[in-house]
Design goal:
Structural class: alpha+beta
CATH topology of the largest domain: Tetrahydropterin Synthase, Chain A
CATH architecture of the largest domain: 2-Layer Sandwich
Radius of gyration: 31 Å
Largest sheet: 4 strands, antiparallel
Number of helices: 5
Strand content: 15-25%
Distance between the termini: 83 Å
CATH class of the largest domain: Alpha Beta
Shape: flat
Order of helices and strands: HHEEEHHHE
Length: about 170
């Protein structure tokens, strides 16, 4: 009978152990939920700015004035991309952001050089180079680098895409 009692006790011991293991899992899940909730509340408080200045409205000292900028539209460009087989075209409309109107006057004489640099670069692109936001970011950075090289000593602050179509 001792063997049978040990067997019954073993079964009871396993079920009791499973109950403890289940309660541990529950505690871990509840703890993780509480930690996530605290993290979310902390992030909300941090990003809302409550800790920095309370609930008061921003004063004129805290407001940063944005510099006035001027935009210059380049002519629409359509180029065929470097593909094998069926032709793929890129149609792009670009605006340049410059500091002031005098910058545009310094850039306009270099417009043929700018368009040539853009055309040469864009024709070497593959459709996969333009996929996703990272592809467009790299394209913007490369065009900005090329235009600032072409118009030096003038400076372009940013290249802005008004339209991009890959077909």
């Amino acid at each position: 009978m001792t063997a049978e009692a040990d067997a019954v006790e073993g079964e009871g011991g396993e079920s009791a152990g499973a109950g403890r293991g289940g309660s541990r899992k529950r505690l871990v899940i509840i703890g993780a939920g509480v930690a996530a909730a605290l993290l979310a509340v902390g992030a909300g408080v941090y990003f809302s700015g409550i800790l920095e200045g309370g609930f008061s409205s921003p004063t004129s000292e805290g407001v940063v004035e944005q510099k006035p900028v001027v935009f210059y539209d380049l002519p629409e460009m359509t180029v065929n991309l470097a593909t094998e087989g069926r032709a793929t075209f890129l149609k792009v409309r670009i605006a340049l952001e410059v500091a002031d109107r005098t910058s545009i006057d310094r850039i306009e004489p270099y417009l043929p050089r700018i368009l040539d640099a853009f055309q040469v670069y864009l024709r070497e692109l593959r459709p996969t180079d333009l996929e996703g936001s990272s592809g467009l970011f790299r394209l913007k950075e490369e065009l900005l680098r090329r235009i600032n090289t072409a118009v030096y000593p003038a400076r372009v602050e940013a290249v802005l895409f008004k339209e991009i179509l890959v077909q």
